[in-house]
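Example 3.2
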Amino acid sequence: MLHPALIQAFEAVEEHPELAALMRSLQAPRTEGPRTFVLSGLTPTAKAVCVALFWKVLRQPLIVITPSSQHAEPLVDHIRTFASVLSPDAAQVLPLPALDALPGQGLSPHAEIQQQRAWALWNLARARAAVIVAPVEAALYRVWEPDYYRQLALLIRVGDELGLESVVDYLEAVGYQPREPVEMVGEYSVRGGILDVYSPGSSRPLRIEFLDDSVESLRYFDPGTQRSVERIQECCLLPLTEIVRTRELVMELSERIGNSAEERLPEGWEFWVPLVKPRECWLGDFEHRYLVIDEPGDLQATAERFWK
């Protein structure tokens, strides 16, 4: 429970005349395209309070674009804190990191960064995130259409006609790695007709039991004891990468870059994917979007340096 003095402090902020006028303007009818707000000259804490208040009023996903990753990372934590105070039922506040490699370097982005991007874009496409915080480098990258990201996850229900092999194919295509026993996010194992898998966004790994080509049971299990702890009726397996590495994609990409189909794709192959699957959207093309620009002058300078 919050201390009464803290509640009064936030009420005083909300009632500030200029901020109250801004909140009223947020509720005005929307125009075509993303609606944009600018934050400038405020401390990081004050910016986080404003963003949390924006979401409290709008109840629509906000995309906050910052001048750099160094600005974005602490801002995510601040917004989470104030959103939990101002709106206890607030949805997630997620980072959308920039890739830590560039085209032509012969390096693939770090697995954790790919996972964070897939998680953020899936949640944004499905309007499940309250706030997405992206450095300008991340915002400059083209993305695929929102429908692509909505379909990245695999929903499984008890009784579904779904073969074990097709689920394993999905897991491998979106970045999962085989490991026995399953203990960490992104791992899976197969024993007969039983599939253990640990999906991002889940507090525990999942055990899926198949009977022929039908899902017979879904159970969470304790990774420490490997014992089942709870039966459920449906689950959602989430991706660890935004690029679905299907056999068709690998073959087409190999042909374009001169690899044989049997060769592994070289490091940095992710940057070649737009050759066969063009990215034609940006974050502002997602539905129900409001953009918050953090320090536009600094943001512009960073963007210019990034393109040099």
